[in-house]
Amino acid sequence: MANTFNKKYTYQPINKPNLKELYNGIKTGNKTVLSQAITLLESKNQKDRELIYQLIKKLPAPSHKTIRIGITGSPGVGKSTFIESIGSFLCKKDYKVAVLAIDPSSEKTGGSILGDKTRMENLSTMKNAFIRPTPSKGQLGGVAQTSHEAILLCEMAGFEIILVETVGVGQSETHVKELVDFFLLLMLAGAGDELQGIKRGIMELADTILITKSDEGNELNAKKAKLNYQNALHLFPANENKWMPKVLTCSSLENKGINQVWDVIQDFEEKATKNGWIKKNRSSQNRFWFHQTLQNFIKNKFYTSP
Ligand code: GDP
Questions:
Q1: Which residues of 42-67 are buried (b: 16+ CB within 10 A; e: fewer)?
Q2: pLDDT per residue over 1-35, tens digit each?
Q3: Of 11-25, 72-86, 231-245, which has the strongest mean pLDDT?
């Protein structure tokens, strides 16, 4: 009896897909293969990563329009609930939505900040959604080096809207900015900026500030906060993309204000595509990640050589 049990439940390593299987899987939008590809990308084994670099080189560039959206804010501000809400809204509109949640480990405890709580329960069951947490331990102040390639893989697998979630507590946001086209900062009404751990630098990066938990009964507070942030944003220098940052309010639990957020993102996308900014920004991001990879490679070589 014991033997049968052991045989049945002995750990079997998952078969690693080869280049052809990865290629076919990604081209047909297979979410399991996409997940496997990202795991190989994050592997400590150089050979696994090289396989994925080969794959990316081989795959055709996506022929559909894609938008990369960064979502950040302090723990508890309502990021995952918002993503659940807007993600479901977009899937119902027939968009294919990928969520990459970059989960920084706490420097003190080594534990994960985003936590093991069940996140995005509804969205995770939707056919058009793909959700992938990514550990960022030790990488670039929080942003996983591999996130740039993970975004490319999602797009090559047919995803149109990529939501990149990070915790807005460190300097990682400047690196998130290097991953996305549009940067959304979530804030609470009524809590001081110091309390929320949000630094001025992050506010300057935001294309939109979204005040969360504007539920029935809390709308007045949210409106006041909106005015304050609108006034504060006027004092900042104009963004490189010529976009005037907006301030919006929403209640993810009551599904209010979600469509307005999407309207603003679409407006941004239209303008930033027309004036060439998205294209220009993505190529400068490619250069940034190329240099990061190169620096890491040289550093590794140095430290592993006697
Ligand atoms: P995260 O840490 O930023 O991802 O925040 P969560 O999405 O986990 O939300 C933190 C808490 O705020 C949870 O208890 C949510 O239920 C709650 N929350 C999120 N959005 C809303 C909202 O629109 N209204 C209210 N009242 N609570 C919310």
A1: beeeeeebebbeebbeebeeeeeebb
A2: 444 444 444 444 457 899 999 999 999 999 999 99
A3: 72-86
- pTM for this predicted structure: 0.88
Backbone angle region of 165, left / alpha / beta, with phi > 0 → left and psi within -120 to 50 → alpha: beta
- How many CB atoms lie under 10 A from the CB of residue 140? 17
Tell me the β-bridge partners of 73: 167
Residue nearest to atom 28 of ligand 1 (CA): 213
d(CA 197, CA 64): 38
DSSP 134-158: EE-TTSGGGS-TTHHHHHHHHHHTT
pLDDT at 271 over 50: yes
Ligand 1 atom 18: residue of nearest CA: 78
Summarised one tens digit per residue, pLDDT across range 118-127 is 578 889 899 9
Partners of 211 in the beta sheet?
187, 249
DSSP assignment of 74-93, as one string? Answer: -TTSSHHHHHHHHHHHHHHT
Range 206-218 burial, b when 16+ CB lie within 10 A, else e:
bbbbbbbbbeeeb
139 CA to centre of ligand 1 in angstroms:
27
| Dist. CA 259 → ligand 1 center (Å) | 18
CB 54 within 8 A of CB 19: yes
Query: Ligand 1 centre and the CA of 89: distance in Å?
Result: 17
Q: How far is CA 174 from CA 70, 183, 184, in A?
A: 11, 10, 13
pLDDT of residue 137: 57
